[in-house]
Amino acid sequence: MNTSTITLSSDPEWYRKAVFYEVMVRSFLDTNGDGYGDFRGMIDKLDYLQWLGIDAIWLPPFFQSPLRDGGYDVADYREVLPTYGSTADFDEFLQGAHDRGMRVVIDFVINHTSDQHVWFQEALKAGRGSKERARFHFYDANSDGTPPNNWISLFGGPSWTQVDDGQFYLHLFDSSQPDLNWDNPDVAEDFEKTLRFWLDLGADGFRIDVAHGLVKEDVLKDHPDPQGLSDALRLDMPMDPERRYALLPTVPYFDRQGVHEIYRKWRTIFDSYGSREVMAVAEAWVHPPVNATRYVRADELHQVFNFDLLDAAFEAEQLYGLMSAAIDLMKSVGALPTWALSNHDSPRVASRIGDLQSRALALFVLALPGSCYVFAGQELGLPDGVIPDEARQDPIYFRTKGVQKGRDGARVPLPWKGETAPFGFTSGKPWLPLQEGWKDLTVEKQESDPRSTLNLYRNALNLRAEHLVNNGEVEWIESPVHGGKSASLLAFKRGNVSVYMNLSDLPIEIEVNGKLLVVSSGIVDGRDGKVTIPPVSTIWLHH
Ligand code: BGC
Fold first, then answer.
1. Which residue's alpha carbon is at the smallest distance from atom 5 of ligand 1?
2. Ligand 1: which residue has its CA nearest to atom 3?
3. Cβ pair 204, 276 in contact under 8 A
4. Cα-to-centroid distance, 210 and ligand 1 (Å)
5. Which of 60, 271, 426, 483 has the fewest other C-beta atoms within 10 Å?
6. What pTM value is reported for the model?
7. What is the mean pLDDT of each run of 10 residues along the chain (543 residues)?
8. Contact residues of ligand 1, CB 6 A cut-off
9. C-alpha to C-alpha distance for 28 and 392, rounded to whole angstroms
């Protein structure tokens, strides 16, 4: 296999302003009819991604895995899952992306392995006290036979499972995802090899899964409120915010100081690739928010995800508070924020806040400083799929015995063309059902409609590259929101571009001169120094 030759423009800080496209291989395009997307499909659609105007692609795990948690249960970190193709297919995809000026960032799932990973299988055989078990968190039962502590899995149920000889192992997620013991030198050493393996192949960076979770403290100690704690960690669990904020800093297995030593070591590896401009982004759910800045210190990782908008209301005051806080927080350490409206773990933004609202919010966010993560299908305005219970795959559904439906709705494959499901995604049976009602959302339909969500994203990405990425800092434009009143307009200026979002159901007239660059929906009326912004819509004006 060839090591990828990189033909990308040289910009050591490319990631600070990039638009990343998150795409699960298995939901993108299936070329062999087995119902799962594959790398041949990814290769076929590289031109589509280039046409869309994204800068980088983030691939959730595509490695050898029993897919108990969508691939976040890795059985071999250096092998491509055959369902998706071969390492040579990945290599061809990577080269094709580079040739089109797009970088590729891959997922690094290092808090846990799959129970099918050779290390875990060896640990089961080797028995208590062995060096094989020392790579995980194996402990004896308490004298009354109960698990070593009372922690609850983030996916529901206990976070300990007992093996045949009576010992328990820790899993913060599914029982098929045993947590690794990062105090064991074998673990760090092996993952450094894996990092180099993918970097040598040409990967441009890593998304670090559960980046805040590797180091555990007080593994044998009970938590006073384990259920409260695990509910507090779940975005979709309603909880009194004060209670949530009181509980979060007490997590004994998240955001411990030890994780930062690991990232300092990795940074030296990334930097050793010099001109390659490798980046890493942390998935770190931390509290208080200022702790997020630690992950992006100059000698650690390059970015940290900001998840605030994944569950924010379409409401000016809240959005202003979250956005300005995220910008200020990152500025305090010389970093730029990241923005995401949807991802594979959350309900899709179009379902959560509505179609027009999600277009308006996306256009607003794409103009902010920092980088944006767009989840595949978001550019089509795709809502969540309606999944019959018998088709569900998410371990959250099974571990909570159906109380929580899980994340499958957001993961349904993309509709490409035609009038009936599965809309060109596969010639077989898709791994999750596409919705019959999506016939107007296909790429084919939207490509030819200048007012489609797809063309909105495409225009916005082009205009962002032309007018915004090198433009100035955010200057919020005075609007009622700053007076603390209920507001229907949110606006800011960056250099010679100003951005207005009308959150109300009525048109809003503002006094401003400027040339309209793009509108998220509706017709903009502008004359005599006045511009009317359509209801639930965002505009960019050039001055
Ligand atoms: C990933 C999830 C996954 C979990 C366990 C998360 O942060 O985004 O999809 O289920 O880690 O690996």
1. 72
2. 72
3. yes
4. 7
5. 483
6. 0.96
7. 57 93 98 98 98 98 98 98 98 98 98 98 97 98 97 94 98 98 98 98 98 95 94 85 92 95 98 91 94 96 97 94 97 96 97 98 98 98 97 96 95 98 98 97 98 98 95 86 61 96 94 95 93 97 96
8. 69, 72, 109, 173, 209-210, 283, 344-345
9. 18
